[in-house]
Every structure is written in C-alpha cells, then in structure tokens.
Design brief:
The complex is a heterotrimer. Chain A is an all-alpha fold. Chain A is built from 15 helices and four strands. Chain B has one helix and ten strands; from the N terminus they run αββββββββββ. Chain B is elongated. Classes of the chains: A mainly alpha, B alpha+beta, C mainly alpha. Chains A and C meet through helix 11 of A and helix 23 of C.
Chain lengths: 360, 150, 423
C-alpha cells in the first residue's frame, strides 16, 4: 500500500489531482422514483467499450476486400480460437448498444432532461446516436454476405433521393455507382477510422458536460429528491452501475452462447436480390414506413416525401431544447411530452411489427 | 454474546469481500481468457481464399494427375505427357462427382457416368454439359500454387 | 454483258445437270451479299405473299453467302424487266413443288466440293440420309404431308443450325418437330400417337435442355437422327442411349437382362425407362410391387424379386444415411463450425451413391452393395466429424454457462456489498 501512496503523492505533486478526487468523492446523484433512468447512459458506454475491444480484436484477422472479406470472417468464426465468441459478442453488443442508447435517449427526453442548461449535452447525445447508427450501417456490410450486400444497396440508394446532392452523396458512400468492393473498403474506413475518431471526441465532450452539470432532477420530482439522501457517485453509484454492467456482460454471454450470430452466404453482386431483405432492426421503423408510402405523394416521389418527413422529425427532435420554450424555465410543454410518447410508440410498434413479419 | 455477534459480522463482511473479489476476478478471467486465445493465430495462419499450395512438382511425373483441395471442393492438377502442368476444378459438371486423370486415355475422366474432358478441361464425351473450370498454376521452386479467379 | 450472263446461265444449267457447282453469277463468291433485281422488285410488291420471301433474305444464310434468289429459282437477276428476269427460257423455275425441294437443296448440299468453299465442316450427306428417312420414303411415294428440308429449316430466311434463332437450334427443334408430330389427327394417318412431344417435354432430358440450357441434352434428332429421321429399332435402343449413358450400358451388358431382353425382342433401356417421357429414375421403382418397374416381368418369389429386394434395401439404407448425415453436417455448419472435412466425406459418399445407382443396371445385388458400403463408410466418417463438432458446441455452451454463473455471482455479491455499505 505504501508504494501506491508514494505513487499517488508523486502524481498529485505534479498534476494537482487532488481537486479531481475531491470532485469525484463529493459528486452526488439525486435519488427519486425515476433515478433508474440514470443507468442507461453508463450501460451504453459499457457496450461501446466492448465494441472497441472486440472490434480491435477482429481487426487482427479481418480483410476489407470483396474477395477476402467473407472468407476472413468465416476464418475468424471457424478457425481462430474463440473467434466465434469475439465475432458474436461484437455483433450482439452493437445491437445492445443501440438499444441502450435508444433507452437512454427516450428516458432523457421523457423526463425533460434536455432542458436548459443541458442543450449541448442533448445535441452531442443526438449526434452520438446518429454515429452509432452509422457504425451499425457500415459494420453490417463488412462480413460481405448476401443479406448485408443487398441491404446496403437499398440503404445507400435512399440517399440518392436527396435533392441536388443525392447523386454525389451516393457516389461518396458507394465509392462508385454501384455497391462493390470499393464500397466495402470505404465502409471499412468509416467503421474503423472516421466514426471512432469522431465518436471518441464527442463522447468525451458528452461525458464532460454531464460531470460538469451533474444529474438533472426531472420536473415535479424536486421535492422528493430534496427529501431523499442523494447517492454518492463514488463508490455507491459506481458500484450500482457495476451491477448493471455485469448484467450487460451476462446478456452478451447468454446471447452469444444461445444465439450465435450467423454468417450467411457470400454476397454475389450479380445474383438477384433474395426475398426478405431487411436492414438492422433499428432502421426498420424508417424502412417499413418508406415502403408503405405510395410511389407519388402530391406529385413528389413518395420516398422523397418520406425522407423529408424523417429529416424534419429528426430536426424537431434535435431542436427540442429550443422549441420547447417552457422547458427553459422549468415548465415543459405537454405537447412535447406527448410527442415523445408518440415517437416511442411509433418506433416500438413498427419495429416489433416488422420483426413479426406484419409488413410482408 | 455481543462479541460473538460482532465477530460474525466481521467474518461475514470478510467472506463477502473475498467472494466479491474472487467472483469479479473470475469474471475478468472469463473475459480475458478468450482474448488471449484469440490473439494467438491458428495453425492455418490465413484464410484460404483463392490460392492454395496444391502439390510438389517432383511428386507429379509426366502423364499423371493429383487431386488437391480448395476448401472443401476438390481440384485436379494434371501433368500432361509432354510435361505441361495444368489445374482444373475436379467437380464434374454433370453430377458433381470428382474427376480423375486417366494415364491410359491421357485425359481427364469421371468414373460416375464415363464423362471425358480433354487436357483443356473441355467436355469431349459423355454426359458432362460444360467444361471444367480452369485454374492458374504458378510454380515456385518445387511448389505448385493454384489460383482460381475470384 | 448481256451475252455474258446468258452464257453464264447456259453454263449454270449445264453444270446443274452435270452436278457441278452453279456458275458465279447466280452464286457469287462466299461472303458477298446477294442484292439484285429480284429482291429490289419483290421488296416493292404489295402482295405480302410475294414480298415476304424477299424480306426474309435479309437474315438468310444463303443470301449472306452470295447465293442469289436465282441460285435456287433460276431466271435472270440482272434484268429489271419481270418478263425477262422470270422467263422460263432463262431457266426460271418459280415456286418449287413439295417433291422437288429436297433434290433442289441437295444440288448444292450434296456436292462436297461445292460446300467446301462455304462451310467445310458441314456434312454433305443430308439428302442421302433424307432418302432413308420415313419422311423421304413417304415423299418418294408421293405423300406431300411429310417434312421436307424447308419444313424444318424454313424456305427463305434459313439460319445457320447453330444460330439460336434457328428453328432447328437444340432448344427450338422440339417444337419444330412438334408442329407436325404434336398433331394427333395428322399423326393418326401414320399410326403414330402424336403425344410423343408432350411426353418428351415431361422428361429429364427436356428439363436439362430448358432449365440448365444444356445443349448436349438429347432432343428428337439425337435418337431418331435429323435428316434420316427413323424410329430406332428394338435392337439398337441400348446403342443409342449408350452413346451418352456409357457406364449404364456397360453394366447392362453384364447383366442377365441383356440376353433375356434380346430373346424376347424387348427393347433394352426403354423397357424400364420408357422412350419419350424419360424421367429421373427413383429408387422406389425397384421391386415387384404394384407400379414398380421390375414387377412388369418379375413376380414375388422369383430370383429377380429377391435381387430387387436386396438392391432396394442397399440403396435405401445408403440414401437414408446420406440424407441424415447431410442434414446433421448442415446443422453443425450453420452453427458456425468448420465442416470442410465432413463435406469432403459427404462428396465421397455422394459419388459412391451415384456409382451404386449405375450398378443397378447389372441387377447384381453384391455389386450394388459394394458401392453402398462405400457410401456408409464415408457418411460414418462424416458423422464422427459432426459428432465431435457437436461436442465442441456443447463445450462452448457449458463454458459460457459457467461464466454466466460467475457473472451472476459477482452481481449478487456486489448487490450485497452495496446493501451492507448503505445500511
């Protein structure tokens, strides 16, 4: 123990770490009947850490070319010791991360925690969710299997509908007119370099904001929070979060053991699209809605209308700290609360219905 | 009595701490063990994609053939009577039997339904509907590498 | 000029009589397209019946090679005056009678030295073969309902045989024959059922032709001959099938059936496989029961029935083993295990099974069993590989289950720890 003390003194003497420790030990987390919502952000972080770790491991064997991608994933799954586990955990953790991020976002929204002064935290969080979906979309293609290939073809095709720059965007994403090996190399670059770089920076900012501002106590729960003794961040809250992380780890182990992620069959760009092409589940609510739209709405292409509507909805969602004027003075509007429940209901219903095959 | 009680609390706490430390350590070990195993490459250090070491030149006298494997699919190396080396898919285009080299015919033959292929892999007699897929052969010293087009 | 062409015409007529090549003015050098006053004039005619032949010449192989209209029909293709161009004095023959066509086509196509200039590899025995065919024999007797050259190849607008648009291209010839042979009323006059085309279309041969686009799959002409079209005689059936199905024929020749069928004047392959509706054989055909193939000659208790029972038992055992192992290996593979070795064993088993099916033709159970034992040996090896892969999967699950228990224990103790701390 003496050696740790001396190490600590050496570091503290040079870097003045005492205020940080002081901050951490005095930091408290308010307690009320909705304080369970505070754990989702940490859970998302846990899955992100798992993604980084397993992602780096997969990089040791993965090859990002159309000739070798599928074979290298097959090699990882079949020949590398525990490759099946690492790959399965990476796939499952990606999905659980998006799920945890959605839960985090909706809990924040429904409890009104986006309100001033936390606008920047909300915006950085929103951007992180978009990045997570970008991770999912780019990573989905990397095993270069049939389903991923066609889902990517459909998915990238959507951006071509964007007015004016659609054609350019399509070429930028695909690295050409079609989804080819060039797209794979590009998506690999996005997945392992571009997105991680932006995400790490943004994540650090997001976490710094939270540490700086402390936890938000939802409107109407101030009294309850005032009467209950707040939880010390270290070690009490951290240990509770530890339980949640262990639960996340257990979920990963169970899913990897009982539902190993399948490899599918190698993509053949010249084969006709197989039936039942679907993107990852977190795109389903958009995917199915776009499919339901008629070819033309008021003379405009249906898909364009749909994409426009989703962009607008996304913008409203993004700008909610500004649009919900009452929230700044602690009186959030009922309309925005209703909107949140509506969005949640829509996403849950469409995703579940699509997974149950209701849109066939 | 209270002393005994206090002692049991302390021992309970110690047991709990021990259990916590052990189980967290075991969890960490369970997570790290696969990682350590993963980073050690398997015996076959590379995914066999489009190229395999199919055989040795010295083991292939003129007018003989040899079956090799591309993953689970057989290929055939042929050394013609005048010493040229060629390689084809050994999967008969009729019903997927494995073809063989017949020194007496000096060409490739399928035993199942008497399909014949010439030394360019072309179907010349019997039921095969299509030629055998041809592979490229590279000779590096004594090693014969076969490459199939992606 | 005029004199020159007249001379050429005279020479042409003389040459036709002598059986030598027609003169250059009517048949130009190979590769020169034969535009002339015939096509120019007929193209402009209102009567579709007269216009169509001229239009069809655009794709016609003869025309493209320099054979003018006059090359067949005679006349003077240099004159713009119809009365001159189509003057019988200039050798104009007009429309050919049905009977005249084979000889007319043969005047060039039977001439080996003439054909050599255009298509050295095209045979020149078509007319000779045609004369031996049922069609040719009936035509000689004055029957004008039978097929002549133009019935199958077309008169004007004849395409090369290997041109996919040609009516005699492998994928289209069946329907070409079917134009007459699918007509039960017409065929009734010749004692032919007229359902042969329909039957053939149910066959494995036709399926290979249309679904796999396997142009080597037999069509009508592969067995009956093209120009010499005739039903093969009973004794030649196994020769004909044997041209492709060599191994089966070889095994059949070893069997007691060979002599027995010959003694009964029974066709060889056809007796079990039928003639036109040759479908993919099923192992279930083997046996003397109702609707089973062997039952048409053999009955329960005879040596044939005993052999059939033994062969069927061997085959169904092997096929069951093969199917079961394949499923098991697929299942394990889908679970993410490397099953290359097992796949190789399955390939071996599959191959041995195909060879067992060939051995059926010997009707010798021990020869079939020899192959089915090889099938089971290979499936056994694949089963062992699958079993060890399954063990590996169980081992993984157990490992993960143990780690789940460890994680759960960590969670529980952590919860207790928190409780103890916050009490």
């Amino acid at each position: 123990m003496r050696i740790f003390d001396r190490l600590w003194q050496a570091l503290d003497g040079r870097l003045e770490l005492a205020p940080l420790v002081d901050f951490a030990t005095h930091k408290v987390v308010p307690q009320h009947r909705h304080s369970w919502a505070y754990y989702f952000g940490g859970l998302t972080l846990f899955f992100f850490i798992v993604q980084v770790a397993t992602g780096i491991l997969l990089l040791l064997y993965y090859r990002p070319t159309s000739e070798a991608a599928f074979e290298s994933v097959q090699f990882i799954v079949t020949r590398v010791p525990f490759g099946w586990l690492i790959r399965s955990v990476h796939s499952w953790s990606a999905n659980l991360m998006v799920l945890a991020a959605f839960a985090h976002m909706f809990s924040v929204y429904l409890l009104g925690s986006y309100a001033k002064p936390r606008e920047l935290t909300w915006w950085s969080g929103f951007a992180l969710l978009v990045l997570a979906m970008g991770f999912g979309f780019s990573g989905y293609l990397l095993p270069w299997n049939e389903l991923a290939f066609f889902a990517t073809r459909v998915g990238t095709d959507m951006v071509s509908k964007v007015p004016l720059i659609g054609g350019w965007l399509l070429k930028f994403l695909r690295g050409g007119e079609e989804v080819t090996g060039a797209t794979l190399t590009r998506f690999f670059g996005f997945h392992v370099a571009v997105l991680p770089m932006i995400t790490t920076t943004l994540l650090a900012t997001h976490l710094a904001f939270i540490q700086r501002q402390g936890m938000h106590v939802p409107e109407g729960l101030e009294e309850e929070a005032a009467t209950r003794r707040p939880l010390r961040f270290a070690p009490n809250f951290m240990m509770r979060e530890g339980v949640v992380w262990l639960a996340g780890l257990a979920a990963l182990a169970a899913l990897a053991a009982f539902f190993p992620w399948e490899l599918g069959s190698k993509a053949d760009p010249f084969a006709s699209a197989p039936a039942g092409i679907k993107p990852e589940w977190y795109f389903l609510f958009m995917f199915e809605a776009l499919k339901l739209l008629p070819a033309h709405v008021l003379g405009i292409e249906g898909e364009l209308v749909g994409l426009g509507a989703f962009s607008l909805a996304g913008l409203v969602w993004f700008l909610v700290p500004v649009l919900d004027r009452g929230s700044r003075i602690g009186h959030r509007s009922r309309a925005f609360l209703a909107l949140g429940w509506l969005a949640l209901a829509y996403i849950v219903v469409f995703t579940l219905a699509s997974m149950a095959g209701a849109f066939k | 009595m209270p002393a005994v009680h206090e002692g049991s609390v302390i021992s309970r706490r110690a047991a709990l701490n021990w259990l916590l430390g052990t189980s967290l350590g075991a969890t960490l070990a369970a997570a790290l063990y696969p990682v350590f195993r993963f980073v050690i490459p398997p015996e076959v250090a590379e995914a066999p994609v489009n190229r395999v070491l199919a055989g040795k030149l010295s083991e292939l006298p003129a007018n003989t053939g040899k079956i090799f494997r591309f993953g689970s699919k057989p290929g055939i190396l042929v050394r013609t009577a005048n010493g040229e080396i060629r390689a084809f898919s050994a999967v008969c285009t009729h019903l997927n039997c494995t073809v063989q080299y017949r020194p007496d015919f000096q060409h490739i033959w399928c035993a199942c339904h008497n399909g014949h292929y010439d030394l360019q892999g072309k179907n010349i007699a019997g039921p095969p509907p299509r030629p055998l897929e041809a592979y490229k052969v590279d000779i590096a010293g004594d090693d014969l590498y076969v490459t199939r087009r992606a | 000029m005029r004199n020159h062409s007249f001379l050429a015409l005279v020479l042409a007529l003389a040459a036709t009589v002598a059986g030598a090549a027609p003169p250059p003015n009517l048949v130009r050098p190979p590769g020169t397209h034969a535009e002339d006053t015939c096509t120019a004039c007929h193209m402009a005619l209102d009567d579709a019946r007269l216009r169509t032949p001229a239009k069809l010449t655009d794709n016609d192989i003869h025309h493209a090679q320099g054979v003018t209209c006059a090359g067949c029909h005679g006349g003077d293709p240099t004159s713009e005056d119809a009365a001159v161009a189509m003057n019988t004095a200039k050798g104009f023959k007009g429309k050919f009678s049905h009977q005249a066509i084979p000889e007319m086509c043969g005047s060039c196509h039977s001439d080996a030295s003439f054909m050599l200039r255009y298509a050295p590899n095209v045979p020149t025995d078509q007319l000779a073969q045609y004369r031996t065919s049922k069609h040719g024999q009936a035509l000689a007797k004055g029957d004008t309902n039978v097929a002549i050259c133009s019935s199958c190849h077309g008169a004007h607008g004849v395409l090369a045989v290997n041109d996919a648009r040609s009516t005699v291209y492998p994928t289209r010839i069946v329907d070409t024959c079917g134009r007459c042979h699918g007509d039960a009323v017409l065929m009734g006059h010749y004692g032919i059922k007229g359902n042969e085309i329909a039957e053939y279309k149910q066959s494995a041969h036709y399926a290979a032709l249309v679904t796999k686009n396997d142009l080597s799959a037999p069509t009508c002409k592969s067995c009956h001959g093209a120009h010499g079209a005739t039903p093969p005689g009973v004794s030649s059936v196994s020769n004909i099938c044997g041209t492709c199905h060599v191994t089966q024929r070889e095994r059949f020749d070893l069997s007691p059936h060979k002599d027995a069928f010959a003694a009964l004047s029974q066709p060889a392959c056809e007796s079990c496989h039928s003639n036109h509706a040759i479908v993919h054989p099923q192992d279930s055909w083997i046996g003397v029961g109702k609707d089973q193939t062997c039952g048409s000659c053999h009955s329960a208790g005879d040596s044939g029935a005993t052999a059939a029972t033994a062969i069927l038992a061997a085959l169904s055992g092997a096929s069951k083993g093969l199917g079961g192992t394949q499923q098991r290996v697929d299942r394990v593979q889908l679970a993410g295990m490397l099953m290359d070795e097992a796949e190789v064993k399955l390939e071996d088993a599959h191959q041995a099974f195909i060879m067992a099916q060939v051995e059926i033709h010997t009707v010798n159970p021990s020869r079939v069993e020899e192959k089915t034992k090889a099938v089971l040996a290979s499936t056994g090896a694949a089963e062992r590989l699958a079993a060890s892969a399954e063990t590996e999967i169980r081992y993984r699950r157990t490992g993960l289950f143990v780690s789940l228990v460890v994680i759960a224990l960590a969670m529980v103790t952590l919860i207790f720890k928190i409780r103890g701390m916050e009490r």
